[in-house]
Write a structure and sequence with these properties.
heterodimer, A: alpha+beta, seven-stranded mixed sheet, two-stranded antiparallel ribbon, 5 helices, 28% helix, globular, B: alpha/beta
Chain lengths: 197, 164
């Protein structure tokens, strides 16, 4: 009996990680996180926008790195159409030094990011249900709230931007801008787990 | 005298050849359907399939724990398959040196990551795609899946749960 309880407890502890899991149609949780320029950014700062592309990403993960220029291109393309990108790094830098705040500043400078790159030291990723980098949550403005309209991958081919066939995220953004539901609302992709204690 | 010399030479050649074979590391490159075929059968084998990559820090940290898995568990054979998601062209450069350096005793395969994410659901519908992740399969229908880093006691719990 004792052994059973111990085993169940062990499994329970291992399964703690993500408690919430946003679904398409849910209201997106607000947040207030520090940007690499030292200012604080809130989701509610974007109330005059048509939508926001929230991307959980980081500096060190090879999958995140493969998407950096694509993310920058999406921000450049859609910011003027009122659907800007906000990138969020939730990795604990005591686990991965490369994902520290100062390295976020450096990485953004080297890669030429023009979007906010926020440090998540409040486990916001758990409220969203983000499990990997990169992991996208496309939010659309709906009256006074932001509602999730697409979750998942940026496209279908991390390895090479030139060989992409399905542009899931930009298709979803285009749909939102046309007042329609995206054809594909949920996709999965390989990524690095989010590092936290 | 010559006979001894020739025999010694032959023995040396045989020795070095056999040592060469012991050192050789085989890593099969597989498509997802081929991997699924390997693990979905009615044999008495418990399959422990770990998804990892040489560049993934928590994956690398848990490899020594997977090395501890015995070849028999609860009277059944155990087959551990370490499925590398390293990028194509990295087998010789990264995977094989890693196997040698970490003295990995289990089978390692190199997965050709398909386009898109449907294959992730085919491994397990609850998998988000994050690695490390481990799938346990026994006689096709008994399946347990865990997303995240494991230690050996955790692996044993999962093995026990799969065989219940």
């Amino acid at each position: 009996m004792k052994k059973r309880i111990a085993l169940v407890a062990l499994l329970g502890i291992m399964l703690i990680p993500v408690t919430a899991q946003l679904k398409v149609g849910d209201v997106a949780p607000d947040f207030k996180l520090k940007n690499i320029d030292g200012t604080w950014i809130q989701l509610s700062d974007y109330n005059n926008q048509k939508g926001v592309v929230v991307i959980f990403t980081c500096n060190h993960c090879p999958y995140a790195k493969m998407y950096e220029s694509r993310i920058q291109a999406i921000h450049a393309r859609y910011q003027s159409q009122k659907v800007p990108v906000i990138a969020i790094n939730s990795n604990d830098s005591t686990i991965v030094e490369a994902d520290s705040y100062s390295n976020m500043i450096k990485n953004a400078k080297v890669k030429g990011f023009t979007f906010p790159y926020l440090l998540d030291d409040q486990q916001l990723f758990q409220k969203y249900g983000a499990t990997r980098t990169p992991h996208v949550f496309l939010l659309k403005k709906d009256k006074k709230q932001f509602v999730v309209s697409y979750i998942g991958a940026i496209d279908d081919y991390p390895q090479n931007a030139k060989e992409v066939k399905e542009t899931y995220l930009t298709d979803a953004i285009d749909a939102v801008l046309q007042g329609k539901e995206p054809k594909v609302t949920l996709t999965k992709s390989v990524g690095c787990s989010i590092k936290f204690k | 005298m010559k006979k001894i010399a020739v025999t010694s030479l032959l023995l040396c050649v045989v020795f070095s050849l056999s040592f060469g074979q012991v050192e050789k590391v085989e890593v099969e490159t597989l498509e997802v359907p081929q991997l699924l075929q390997k693990i979905n059968n009615q044999s008495d084998t418990l399959y422990v399939v770990n998804f990892w990559a040489t560049w993934c820090t928590p994956c690398v940290a848990e490899i020594p724990e997977f090395n501890k898995i015995p070849t028999q568990f609860n009277h059944r054979p155990v087959k551990v398959i370490l499925v590398s998601l390293d990028f194509q062209g990295q087998k010789e450069k990264r995977i094989i040196p890693f196997i040698k350096a970490n003295k990995i005793s289990h089978t390692v395969v190199h997965l050709i990551t398909p386009r898109g994410g449907d294959w992730i659901n085919a491994i397990d519908p609850s998998w988000s795609g994050a690695i490390p992740a481990t799938l346990l399969v026994y006689q096709q229908s008994k399946r347990t899946f865990f997303e995240g880093q494991l230690d050996y006691p955790g692996i044993v719990s999962l093995m026990e749960n799969t065989l219940k």
